Amino acid sequence: MSAQPIMRGLDTPHSSYPRAVIIYNPFAGRLAGRDGVLRRSVDILAKQGTNATLVPTTGPNTAARIAKQHVDEGVDLILAAGGDGTINEVVNGAANTRVPVGILPGGTANVLAHELGITRNVEQAAASVSQLQPCRIAVGLLSCGDYGRYFLSMAGVGLDAQIVYNLNLDLKAAVGKLAYYAAGMLQVFRPLPQFDVEVSGRRHRCGFVLASRVRNYGGDLEIARGASLLSNDFEVLLFEGKSSMGYLRYLTGVAFGFVHRVPGCTVLRANALSCEVAADPAVYSQIDGELACRPPLRLEAVPDALTLLVPAAFLAREQSLRQVVACA
Question: Domain count of the chain?
């Protein structure tokens, strides 16, 4: 589908976002072959006073360029329609600008939408846009040589990135999140490559490290219970051990909410960490569920980097838990 501007009538209500672009992944799990959902979402936005233009991505790593182009053209709002990977790309085109980003969840896991409490129904999410509040937040930045990429939710090095590396994309399209469990089964009985992580001046030997700005992991588990999108740092979880079977103990701790007390797991708060080069080339990293690069790499939180549209209920929850200042 090519870009399709929708014109607003004279009797349409005033909107804080008169011009918007919906950047969507036509192959996202719950958008594939459902153009009508997006067209109806445009109509819903028009009733709120927002003229929206539909622009499809044309392949991997194209959403960032599209977002930047529309920022340069003076758009008032960017809506990312797709999964966490599409949102990640849009963020990389909108970061360090004042143009807000909103979410129309249409992917497989939708970790960020789950964290924010945004419905997975795309049309209902579009109907709520006028009620969302703009919030200036920090974002994560992964740096690896000349490679640099922002992320919103989390970065992982080691075990979970290996699972992403082994992911069968055709199976993901067919069965959704079950494909991740299938890829995870490939790790059973295999030793985990080890690498060194430096956090706050201390070195740790790990098989898996997670730097998270959200509580939930994959939309199903709450793993980083102290993380918050409104903070300027990460909750960092360091998992020791070479045996992948030993990670069942960590998983049990996650499932029952006591992972921070499980021997071999260290939970820290930090605004930066680095992973040194690993002896085994099978050590990978992932950000927001997408494969990134091999160590050596650095992760840091960049304050005041993005305006994100969030529900009032999310703000109320975060402020009660963390006593943070309300967003404008």
Answer: 2
Residues 158 and 24 in one domain: no
Boundaries of domain holding 147: 142-303
In this structure, the answer to whether residues 24 and 75 fall within a common structural domain is yes
pLDDT tens track, the chain, 328 positions: 444 443 444 454 678 999 999 999 988 867 876 779 999 999 999 999 999 999 999 988 899 999 999 999 999 999 999 999 999 999 999 999 999 999 999 887 789 999 999 999 999 999 999 999 999 999 999 999 999 999 999 999 998 888 888 765 665 655 555 555 555 556 666 788 999 999 999 999 999 999 999 998 876 778 898 999 999 999 999 999 888 777 778 878 877 778 888 888 999 999 999 999 888 888 999 999 899 999 999 999 999 999 999 999 999 999 887 655 556 5
Give the integer Cα–Cα distance in Å for 47 and 42. 9
pTM of the model: 0.88
Distance CA 326, CA 257 (A): 28
| CA–CA dist 15, 94 (Å, integer) | 20
Give the helix, strand, coil percentages of the chain, each rounded to 5.
30, 30, 40
Q: Is 318 among the domain residues?
A: no
One domain for residues 149 and 296: yes
Identify whether residues 88 and 45 lie together within a single domain. Answer: yes
